[in-house]
Amino acid sequence: MATRISRVRLGAAVVTAFICGLLFASGIDLTRFGFAQDGKTGAKVASSQVQSLAETGNAFEAIADHVTPSVVSIQTQRVQRNPRARNPRTPPGAGGLEDFFRNFEQQQQPQERSQEGTGSGFIVSKDGYILTNNHVVADADKVTVTLLDKRVFDAKVIGRDSTTDVAVIKIDGSNLPVVPLGDDNVARVGQWVVAIGNPLGLDFTVTAGIISAKGRPLVGLLGRGNAYAITDYIQTDAAINPGNSGGPLVNIRGEVVGINSAIASSTGLYAGYGFAIPVTLAKQVMDDLIQYGRVRRGVLGVRIDNAGAAEAKAAGLDQVTGVLVGDFAPVNGFSPAQKAGLEPGDVIIAADGRPTDRVSTLQRIVRGRKPGETVTLDVMRFGSKKSFRVKLVEVPETATAVASSERLPATGGSDLREREFDKVGLTVEPVSADLVTKAELAEPYRHGLVVSDVKLTGPAHGKVIPDYTILVSVLNPGPKRPLRSAADLDSVLSGLKRGELVSFLVYDIGQSSTRVVTIPVQ
């Protein structure tokens, strides 16, 4: 019994001590009672924070009030012609009832059908010049513009540029509302932006977001197949849908920083990613179209890509940066960059003293110059730094490079021997006479090694395409040498250790162009 009483007294003493401890701690503000969530949740918002939020809201309201009147809704009409025709195999007055009714149905169909489209644009001059997308007004037989105040104008297409997806149209008016153009060069990722346009038939819709990225390339979306296509887009999470195309992307000061042009979506509707053409580029295109009726674009005459880790390492760079020269794009018979001394495999690290970390950066620098002006390029050539002065030439309006979509026949044959090279994960064979004829190969691509297979787990996977890639020569390690047989490739690879790099000049049959591929040896 005594033992039980002592245990009870002990328990009571512990409880009493615990309660006293809580009271003592609370008395000196060591412990606070509250709900399970953090006590900060219920904290009051400071008046300065309320004021800041109000100012942001006021800015959005001001943008909607002052910019929307300069935004326009664009309606286009394309006439599709459907000529009435008899069955070409049936002479007049001949044939059975099926032919009679088929010809009758064709004759009842209208010869012309109207295809309508919608888009957006924004007024940039009081006398009616409007910026929009090329794809909004391309091939349109009639363009109509509607303003916020419901006035309707017939518009004339002043000029279009498919490589930048920029177009200029004009309406007859005076003292029209104009939106100011900003400078996308100083726009930063994370800044607020507003998209205004006519998505899904909902006229003059305003959505807000931020700049999600800059210098974003959209491979294969716009200017596909054109060696001079510009890929330098502003990415935003402001909601953009079909019908927004051509409308302005506006910063918090009410200045246009881009032309809304595309979305990344598997459904064709907004999925969180929209893309706008930088306004500085659009203004240059607009000025040329108005003044010359065409775009006067100076180019280097090269095919370029962002340098990857392997290319940067092979060039002798400590960081993954720069623009890789893969091939030359002759203009009127010659490439100014090639004439100045650049070579495939060079990595351009600066232009006119400004670092070129990616293709879009180099494009921005070059497009700021006119044809005939000179650009100084600093390059790394497999460990050696060199400098070249390149005089820009003007791109012909019809300069395009068309890629073949027809798959070529297999290159193998009984008289050709394949050989595997595990060090690079490639199987190659000499170029056959059949391939030379069917692909219309010119020198020196007739004597290279065509890639017949790529090992899925090998280092070359994703870099070359079987049956479409010809290994032309080895650029690095030096000396540069052509590849005419499997023995030539074997002599190169046999001297390389695991982890070392080998750079090839390859010919892409599908694109009819050369490029540089750097592969780590395994």
Describe this structure in words.
- It is built from ten helices and 27 strands.
- Strands 21, 22, 23, 24, 25, 26 and 27 form a seven-stranded antiparallel beta sheet that branches. Strands 1-2-3-6-5-4 form a six-stranded antiparallel barrel.
- The radius of gyration is 33 Å and the shape is elongated.
- With 522 residues, it is an alpha+beta fold.
Concise summary:
With 522 residues, the chain is α+β, with helices and mostly antiparallel strands.
Give the SSE layout.
Layout: H1 2-27, H2 47-67, E1 71-81, H3 97-108, E2 112-123, E3 129-133, H4 134-137, E4 142-146, E5 152-161, E6 166-170, E7 192-197, E8 205-216, E9 233-236, E10 248-251, E11 256-263, E12 274-278, H5 279-292, E13 298-299, E14 302-306, H6 309-315, E15 323-328, H7 336-340, E16 347-351, E17 354-355, H8 359-367, E18 374-381, E19 384-391, E20 393-394, E21 419-421, E22 426-430, H9 433-438, E23 449-454, E24 469-476, E25 481-482, H10 486-493, E26 501-508, E27 513-520
Antiparallel strand pairs: 1-2, 1-4, 2-3, 3-6, 4-5, 5-6, 7-8, 7-10, 8-9, 9-12, 10-11, 11-12, 13-20, 14-15, 15-16, 16-17, 16-18, 18-19, 21-22, 22-23, 23-24, 24-25, 24-26, 26-27
